[in-house]
Q: What sequence folds into this?
């Protein structure tokens, strides 16, 4: 049982170890069975030592849980490992206790101490241990459990301060004097000696558990920084401000002692705290410098210099028309606004000559009510409303759309005819309509409704109310001879601005 800096071996533990070695040596020399009584003394000492270690472990777990309550994020991972150690140690300890009880039940029958496994009547029995451990195979099972525990402790120790090597020595299960561990431990061994050996393993388990918990508890500070220097830092709310806007920054000393408030000086003037506030003047780059004074542990004043810069810009905004560079009367004109360094939720617009409806993320719908519209952007900066800029737009009426005929061909595809030719029966069968629009490539898109139109064949015209061809018109088109020109004229359409338009004619050759 080797000790560590935090859990050194006591004189009692050293004495127990020496007694254990002496008794084993005497047993190996076939000393009289009366010496077996000495194992009772060693076993009692091991039991007392184990109880003492258990109390120490309970205190360590209490301290560990208290640390976790203070800082779960920092301690949680290490406490999880400590709980794993506790679980595995308890499991192996209880298995060995059960092992001892089974030996005593076979040796002492109905008189066996099945509670504490400490009182032995047939101390000299040489058959019980080898039968239970070797013949029935429980010795191999115990060996595997000891090896599993040793490997777990070794992996958790991460080879720290030689702990891994120490655990391998304590829980050594390799060959002993050219004999397997099971044979060397249980063959021709009296019950009292085996019980003592098992008690020593239990003591080693608790002692190892104690060392591991102490080690893991110390690791909770592993990620903490160790201060070996001081640096001054300037933390600004923003390094970009507008004219009239306040520049705000905190002057901090890294690793400062909370019991010693440093003094901050800028341009020779001492600040009331560590907040530096100044109203931004003219645009451009501004530089300021100062120093921090702090008494060290020896009472000597230390000074830490710092320099910082910030930029002042003129109020500016970016205003873009998502459709065109002008606004259209009676139309939902899409406008986007933004300003460098300012979130869009801190911006709003003011419209003169129209109305504005917000769409979110700095986007608005503008509807003009005059011949020109002025859009201004207002920014909320540090609680102050600052005009970021404005733009004036001309207002125009929506241009006339281009009319065309649309129908479905034999494959169900929609065909649009601005001019050219169509097969008369196919055109009629495709539920033709007259519609109007700007085309896919136009910068602005608007929906138009055709209210009426007429077709002209030669000198005769045939009218339709709405965008669909009337039955009369369809019958005439269906019977037109190949080469006839069909003229669609007097097309009346209304757009989103409510203005009724007389659109140009469309000429189509019937095939």
A:
């Amino acid at each position: 049982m080797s000790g560590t800096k935090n859990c050194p071996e006591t004189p009692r533990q050293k004495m127990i170890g020496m007694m254990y070695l002496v008794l084993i040596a005497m047993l190996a020399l076939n000393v009289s069975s009366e010496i077996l009584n000495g194992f009772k003394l060693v076993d009692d000492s091991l039991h007392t030592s184990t109880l003492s270690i258990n109390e120490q472990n309970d205190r360590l777990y209490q301290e560990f849980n208290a640390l976790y309550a203070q800082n779960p994020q920092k301690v949680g991972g290490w406490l999880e490992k400590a709980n794993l150690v506790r679980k595995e140690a308890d499991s192996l300890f209880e298995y060995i206790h059960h092992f001892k009880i089974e030996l005593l039940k076979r040796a002492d029958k109905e008189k066996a101490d099945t509670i504490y496994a400490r009182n032995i009547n047939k101390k000299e029995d040489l058959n019980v241990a080898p039968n239970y451990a070797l013949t029935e195979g429980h010795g191999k099972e115990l060996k595997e459990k000891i090896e599993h525990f040793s490997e777990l402790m070794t992996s958790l120790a991460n080879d720290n301060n030689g702990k891994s090597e120490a655990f391998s020595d304590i829980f050594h299960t390799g060959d002993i004097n050219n004999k397997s561990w099971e044979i060397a431990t249980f063959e021709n061994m009296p019950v009292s000696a085996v019980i003592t050996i098992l008690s020593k393993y239990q003591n080693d388990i608790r002692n190892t558990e104690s060392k591991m918990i102490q080690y893991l508890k110390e690791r909770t500070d592993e990620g903490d920084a160790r201060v070996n220097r001081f640096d001054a830092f300037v933390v600004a709310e923003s390094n970009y401000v507008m004219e009239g806007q306040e520049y705000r920054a905190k002057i901090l000393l890294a690793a400062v002692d909370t019991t010693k408030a440093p003094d901050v000086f800028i341009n020779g003037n001492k600040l009331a705290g560590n907040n530096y506030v100044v109203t931004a003047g003219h645009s451009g780059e501004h530089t300021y410098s100062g120093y921090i004074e702090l008494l060290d542990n020896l009472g000597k004043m230390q000074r830490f210099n710092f320099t910082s810069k910030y930029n002042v810009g003129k109020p500016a905004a970016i205003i873009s028309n998502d459709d065109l560079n002008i606004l259209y009367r009676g139309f939902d004109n899409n406008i986007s606004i933004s300003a460098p360094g300012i979130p869009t939720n801190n911006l709003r617009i003011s419209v003169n000559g129209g109305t504005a409806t917000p769409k979110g993320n700095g986007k608005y719908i503008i509807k003009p009510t005059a011949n020109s519209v002025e859009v201004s952007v207002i920014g909320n900066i540090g609680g102050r409303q600052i005009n970021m800029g404005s733009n004036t737009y001309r207002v125009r009426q929506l241009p006339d759309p281009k009319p065309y005929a649309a129908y479905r061909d034999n494959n169900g595809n929609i065909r649009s005819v601005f001019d050219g030719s169509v097969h008369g029966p196919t055109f009629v069968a495709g539920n033709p309509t007259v519609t109007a629009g700007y085309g896919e490539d136009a910068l602005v898109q608007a929906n138009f409704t055709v209210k009426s139109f007429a077709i002209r064949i030669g000198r005769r015209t045939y009218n339709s109310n709405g965008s669909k061809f009337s039955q009369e018109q369809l019958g005439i088109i269906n019977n037109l001879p190949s080469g006839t020109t069909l003229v669609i004229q007097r097309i009346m359409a209304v757009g989103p601005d409510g203005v009724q338009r007389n659109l140009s004619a469309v000429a189509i050759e019937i095939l």
User: Anything to note?
Assistant: The longest strand covers residues 301-313.
